[in-house]
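Consider a concrete sample entry:
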Amino acid sequence: MRCLLSIIALAGLTGCIATPPMAPKLDVPAKPLLTKSVYQLSYSTELESARIKSVQLPAHPVKSGNTVYIDTSKVSMTDTLRKQIIQLLKDKGLTVVAQRSSDYHLVVQQLDLSFGKDKVYVLNKPEDPHPYIAELAQTIPSKQCSNIVASLSMRLTHKSSSDVIWFAKSSINSAGYQGIPLQFTFTETEKVTNEHAVVSFIVEQNQEEARRARYNQAVEIPPYRVEAQISPLVKTAGACNKTEVSALTSDMMHHLSRGLIEKLNVLL
C-alpha cells in the first residue's frame, strides 16, 4: 500500500513538471479618447438692396380715413399678397373698400417675377482654415445660385379728377432680399480603424499555445490607429437652388409692397 501511494505521488509530480508554464492573458487596451468637431464656412456674393422710386404730387393730399379701391386688373395677384397690401394700407390709416366709387384707386401696374442671371457666391477664407476648407478653396472656390428678380409698381389715382397723385416702383433680387451668405457645416469625427485587428490579436495571444510560446517574452500589442473622417457639407442657411429661391417669392413681394406703401404720405 505504501508503495502504491508513492507511485501515485511521483506520477502527479512528474505531470506538474511536464506542463510548460504560460504567460498571463492579455487585456484589450482601452481605446483612445475620440473627438468630434463641427466646422462652419460660408460663401458670399455682392448684395443689392431694394431700389425704390416714389413720387407724390401735392394736388390732392391723401388723408387718414380716405377710402381706397385696389385695382389689380393688370396683374395676377395672390390672395395672400392682396391681404398684405390691404393691411399695409390700413396701417397707414386708409380704408380699403370693394367699391370703385372710393376716394382713390390704387392701381397695381406691374408685378413680375423672373429668373435672372445666376449669382456667384465666393468662399470666404477663415482666419484659421481647416485643411478641408483649404481643399475646398481649390476644388469648390465658388457656387452658382439661382436668382429671381421681383419687380412691383403702383400708382394712386384721385377718383373724381382721375389725376395720378402718387406712383412708385421697386425691385429686388433673391440674393439681396436674403442679405446673408450661404452657410455650411461639416463634421470631423475621429474613429479607430483597426479595432477588429487589435481584438483579434488579443484573442489569438490568449490561446494556451500562444501563452506558452510567449512565456517570459515581451509582447507588443498593435496600437490603435485613429483617423479623422469628414462628413459631406450640409447647408444651414441661404437659398440657392431653384426650389429654395422660388420659395422666397411670396415674402419678396410683401417686402416690396411694404417698402412702397411706406413711401406714401398720408396726412392725419
Summary: The chain has one domain: 36-190+230-263. Residues 36-190+230-263 form a domain with the Double Stranded RNA Binding Domain fold (CATH 3.30.160.150). Confidence is low (pLDDT under 50) at residues 3-16. The helical segments are 2-18, 79-91, 131-139, 174-178, 195-205, 208-213, 242-246, 249-262.
